[in-house]
């Protein structure tokens, strides 16, 4: 698990350095609690989660002696409390099949890689998986998805470059239904520069999907790059409005000290967190284990 969440190493180091000098007094008093709260905010957990954790610490321990180790254990417990309610794996439950999973996010967030990683996780559970290249505007995106599809051995439905994403999705659902696919994972355009256009495109995809299966899309998974810190959170607001997000995957938790945004996202939005990306390789998508993550962060 150390290697697993080597990912959060820098986040944890940032919190440690922000906590330096906090426990000057042996007893947990207001000044110490202020310092703890500041350290949490500086570590990207956000004012609201920081206040909540402070409140819980005060409620349980105010005036009691506390060592740094005890303080960190207590913080880990409160962080876990925030994370537990949102930890939800992306289960394949749709009936009839296929379960249609739209994957959205800005370009560069790790969307394509995450799609391949998700497909790989489903394969490991013996589900039949198909991909659809719904981002028809970037030839590179289609090519990259094809490379992943070939590498892991799943079919990819793609249209002409510049073609209609909704018609690619239509073809994919028909093909997936005909071939008994369990999970259809759909890449979509990540152009937030033009919100209107993206919104139109996604609603057209929804309309087409709805005609084939009123339940589809079953999931709308937003991929967020943790290295974007507060900006990643701002994207939740926009994509919720544009796309009706049902869950999150946060990527690049390996190279960043800003992993605290994961806690902030959980506290502020309460959206399910399905998995986390901790590297570039196919098996670097981990199930979201709230207790483990909390322990590693704190
Ligand atoms: P897209 O433009 O959103 O489809 O992004 P890509 O999937 O192409 O990813 C952009 C870059 O981020 C690539 O170099 C990926 O290898 C890298 N990447 C994706 N997820 C992770 C992750 O969890 N950790 C790290 N370190 N890199 C990642």
UniProtKB/TrEMBL annotation:
<feature type="binding site">
    <location>
        <begin position="251"/>
        <end position="254"/>
    </location>
    <ligand>
        <name>GTP</name>
    </ligand>
</feature>
<keyword id="KW-0342">GTP-binding</keyword>
<dbReference type="InterPro" id="IPR027417">
    <property type="entry name" value="P-loop_NTPase"/>
</dbReference>
<feature type="domain" description="Signal recognition particle SRP54 helical bundle">
    <location>
        <begin position="4"/>
        <end position="83"/>
    </location>
</feature>
<keyword id="KW-0378">Hydrolase</keyword>
<comment type="similarity">
    <text>Belongs to the GTP-binding SRP family. FtsY subfamily.</text>
</comment>
<keyword id="KW-0547">Nucleotide-binding</keyword>
<dbReference type="InterPro" id="IPR003593">
    <property type="entry name" value="AAA+_ATPase"/>
</dbReference>
<dbReference type="InterPro" id="IPR000897">
    <property type="entry name" value="SRP54_GTPase_dom"/>
</dbReference>
<feature type="binding site">
    <location>
        <begin position="187"/>
        <end position="191"/>
    </location>
    <ligand>
        <name>GTP</name>
    </ligand>
</feature>
<dbReference type="InterPro" id="IPR042101">
    <property type="entry name" value="SRP54_N_sf"/>
</dbReference>
<dbReference type="Pfam" id="PF02881">
    <property type="entry name" value="SRP54_N"/>
</dbReference>
<dbReference type="InterPro" id="IPR036225">
    <property type="entry name" value="SRP/SRP_N"/>
</dbReference>
<keyword id="KW-0472">Membrane</keyword>
<dbReference type="Pfam" id="PF00448">
    <property type="entry name" value="SRP54"/>
</dbReference>
<protein>
    <recommendedName>
        <fullName>Signal recognition particle receptor FtsY</fullName>
        <ecNumber>3.6.5.4</ecNumber>
    </recommendedName>
</protein>
<feature type="binding site">
    <location>
        <begin position="105"/>
        <end position="112"/>
    </location>
    <ligand>
        <name>GTP</name>
    </ligand>
</feature>
<comment type="subunit">
    <text>Part of the signal recognition particle protein translocation system, which is composed of SRP and FtsY. SRP is a ribonucleoprotein composed of Ffh and a 4.5S RNA molecule.</text>
</comment>
<keyword id="KW-0963">Cytoplasm</keyword>
<dbReference type="InterPro" id="IPR013822">
    <property type="entry name" value="Signal_recog_particl_SRP54_hlx"/>
</dbReference>
<dbReference type="InterPro" id="IPR004390">
    <property type="entry name" value="SR_rcpt_FtsY"/>
</dbReference>
<feature type="domain" description="SRP54-type proteins GTP-binding">
    <location>
        <begin position="98"/>
        <end position="298"/>
    </location>
</feature>
<feature type="domain" description="AAA+ ATPase">
    <location>
        <begin position="97"/>
        <end position="248"/>
    </location>
</feature>
<keyword id="KW-1003">Cell membrane</keyword>
<keyword id="KW-0675">Receptor</keyword>
<comment type="function">
    <text>Involved in targeting and insertion of nascent membrane proteins into the cytoplasmic membrane. Acts as a receptor for the complex formed by the signal recognition particle (SRP) and the ribosome-nascent chain (RNC). Interaction with SRP-RNC leads to the transfer of the RNC complex to the Sec translocase for insertion into the membrane, the hydrolysis of GTP by both Ffh and FtsY, and the dissociation of the SRP-FtsY complex into the individual components.</text>
</comment>
């Amino acid at each position: 698990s150390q290697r697993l969440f080597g990912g959060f190493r820098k986040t944890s180091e940032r919190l440690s350095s922000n906590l330096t000098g906090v426990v000057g007094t042996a007893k947990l008093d207001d000044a110490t609690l202020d310092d703890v709260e500041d350290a949490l905010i500086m570590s990207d957990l956000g004012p609201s989660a920081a206040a909540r954790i402070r409140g819980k610490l005060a409620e349980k321990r105010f005036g009691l002696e506390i060592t740094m180790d005890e303080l960190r254990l207590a913080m880990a417990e409160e962080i876990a409390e925030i994370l537990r309610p949102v930890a939800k794996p992306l289960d394949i439950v749709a009936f009839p099949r296929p379960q249609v999973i739209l994957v959205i996010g800005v370009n560069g967030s790790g969307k394509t890689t995450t799609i391949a990683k998700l497909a790989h996780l489903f394969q490991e559970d013996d589900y039949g998986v198909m991909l659809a290249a719904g981002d028809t505007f970037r030839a590179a995106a289609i090519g990259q998805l094809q490379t992943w599809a070939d590498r892991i051995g799943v079919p990819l439905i793609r249209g002409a470059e510049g073609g209609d994403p909704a018609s690619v999705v239509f073809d994919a659902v028909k093909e997936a239904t005909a071939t008994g696919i369990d999970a259809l994972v759909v890449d979509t355009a990540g152009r937030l520069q033009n919100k209107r256009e993206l919104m139109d495109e996604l609603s057209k995809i929804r309309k087409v999907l709805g005609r084939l299966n009123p339940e589809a899309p079953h999931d709308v998974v937003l991929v967020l790059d943790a290295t974007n810190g507060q900006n990643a959170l701002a994207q939740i607001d926009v994509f919720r409005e544009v796309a009706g997000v049902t869950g999150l995957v946060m990527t690049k938790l390996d190279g960043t000290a800003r992993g605290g945004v994961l806690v902030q996202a959980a506290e502020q939005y309460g959206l399910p967190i399905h998995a986390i990306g901790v590297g570039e390789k196919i098996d670097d998508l981990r199930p979201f284990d709230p207790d483990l993550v909390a322990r590693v962060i704190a």
